[in-house]
Structures are given as C-alpha cells and as structure tokens.
Amino acid sequence: MKNLDFNEIKICQMQGKIFEESLEKVETSSLIFIRRFMFSNLTKKFDDFSFLTIAFDIDDVFKEIEEEYGVSSYGKTKYSKNEMFWIGYIYRALSIIYNLSSKQVFNLFNAKEIVKYYNIYHTYDVKKACEKMMENINYIKEDINKKVYNLIKKNRKRKELENLVGKEVTVHFKKGSQEYPFKYGYIKNMYGEIQDVYVLGLNEELEKYNGKVATVLENVSFGEDKLVVVPLNETYSKTEIKKMIKLEKIR
Predict the structure, then answer these.
(1) First and final C-alpha spacing in the chain
(2) Are 120 and 83 in contact (CB under 8 A)?
(3) How far apart are CA 206 and CA 172, in angstroms?
(4) pLDDT at 248
(5) pLDDT averaged over consecutive 10-residue blocks of the chain (251 residues)?
(6) Euclidean distance between CA atoms 132 and 13, whole angstroms
(7) Using CA atoms, how far apart are residues 194 and 122, in angstroms rounded to an integer?
(8) Cα separations (Å) of 183 from 49, 69, 168, 207?
(9) Spatial distance between the Cα atoms of 72 and 149, rounded to a whole number of angstroms
C-alpha cells in the first residue's frame, strides 16, 4: 500500500479543511453537505489533483456547491469540527491510496457510516486507518467496478420503473399466487427480464390482466423493486397501499 506524498497530503488537508469549514458556511446538516460534496462536479478537480493548481478562496468552494445543488437548510445534525476534518481527509486518502473516485469512496462509506469509523480510527496513522476500514468491509479491489456498475444499473432500472407510473400494463399471473389480499404477478419482457408486480382491487383469478401502475415499491428484504398495479378506473393512495402491502417500502 502506497504512502502519501507531499501533494497528496496537501490535497487531503484541503478537503479536510473544507469539511470543517462547512459547519459555519452552510446551513444543511453534515450528512447532506458530505453527500453533496462527494457527488459534486468540484470533486473531479480533487480526483485529478487539478484543485492544487487553482488559487481558491474557501468561500468559492461553498458557492460552487450551492450553485450546483441550490441553497438548503435541510437537516439538523452537525458533526464536530474534528470529525468533519477527519472525514474530509480520510475520504481523500482512501481515494488516493485505492485509486477510487470520490463517488466510489462515498458508495463504500456513506455519510452515516463514515463518522462511526472516526471514533475507532481517528488516532491511527492515516494509511493504517484506511487499511483497517477496507478490511472491515471486506473490500476487494477487483470488485469495485462491478459494484458501481450494478448500482448504476439498478438506479437506471428504478428510474425506468418510475416512468411507468400512471401507464397501462399487462400483468400475467403465476399459479398459486392469488391467495393474498393482493395478487402477485409479473410483466413479461421488461428490460430483458421478468418484473414482479402486485395487483390491488382484483377479486377474480385471471391468466392476465390490464391495469395501470400506481407506484413503485422497494423490497427491503431482497433489494428488488416491484410495481403496484390497480384497476384502470381506480385510484389508491399511498396510505391505502401501505395497509394492503406491509412487507414493502413505498417510494
């Protein structure tokens, strides 16, 4: 594992200082700021080290992030100055040592998870802290691109499902799937695979059924999204859907 050189330490310190200053410069919670920063266009300048060549004022950093995301006061929880400096520093160190983008590092350690490591590793040497953190999540370098690809694929599919809300679809039913308060079926040939569907308001057994998509459900048990389909001429509120389907998280 490589040691950080002078410029790498410098850019880690810069990012740590930005995170620390965010406590005074932005109104959002620390969680929101961290996520915004790690997904911002600005981090590309950190990933390729071009930020070191820029004569910057720290206020300009927060201005650029606000221009990208908008001004917000959402959230209340603020981490301490020591926590924020360490989080900013360790994120950048992980990016450098493991040759990961800011987004990839955040996907490994999100804003809620990263602060937990502060209490354990903030007294460690940075290189050792990074190594221990990666060991803790059983990180394998070859897997990172696959994980990121799968995440992008899942998010793209979810967006496509959300675009179906309000549209008519044809649902097919599996044998023995109609004993529940809702019917359990599927849509054929969506994105090259079968898409699971819950049908509400249907009181008869059919081989197939035309209805409209009411909402998308996120299955918290298996991580797969499902559609909720209702009769074309009926409307169900999210509260009504929650009462009928209790195992899912409504998006």
Answers:
(1) 41
(2) no
(3) 8
(4) 47
(5) 85 96 92 93 90 84 88 84 97 93 92 91 94 83 59 73 88 70 76 78 85 80 76 86 65 50
(6) 21
(7) 47
(8) 55, 41, 17, 11
(9) 30
Six token digits for residue 244: 């009928």
**Residue 217, pLDDT score:** 82
| CA angle centred on 214, ends 212 and 218, rounded to 5° | 130
DSSP state of 48: T
User: In which region does residue 191 sit, left (phi positive, over 0), alpha (psi from -120 to 50) or beta (all else)?
Assistant: left
The CA-based diameter of the chain, rounded to the nearest angstrom, is 71
Distance between CA atoms of residues 184 and 209, nearest Å: 11
Sign of CA dihedral 203, 207, 211, 217: positive
Residue reference for tokens 């081989």: 207
Query: What does the pLDDT read at residue 143?
Result: 56
Alpha helices, DSSP H only, in the chain? 6-25, 30-39, 43-47, 58-69, 81-97, 102-108, 111-121, 126-136, 144-162, 238-244
CATH number among 2.40.160, 2.60.40, 2.40.50, 2.30.30, domain 163-250: 2.40.50
Q: What per-residue confidence (pLDDT) applies to 1?
A: 64
Q: Label residue 12 exposed, middle or buried (CB < 10 Å: 0-12, 13-18, 19+).
A: buried
Q: How far is Cα 173 from Cα 223, in angstroms, rounded to an integer?
A: 22
Domain boundaries defined on the chain: 6-139, 163-250
Cα 199 to chain center, whole Å? 28
Pairing of strands 208-218, 193-199: unpaired
Nearest to 88 by CA among 3, 144, 13: 13
**Token pair of 62, please?**
């927060």
Q: What are phi and psi of 187, to 5 degrees?
A: -110, 135
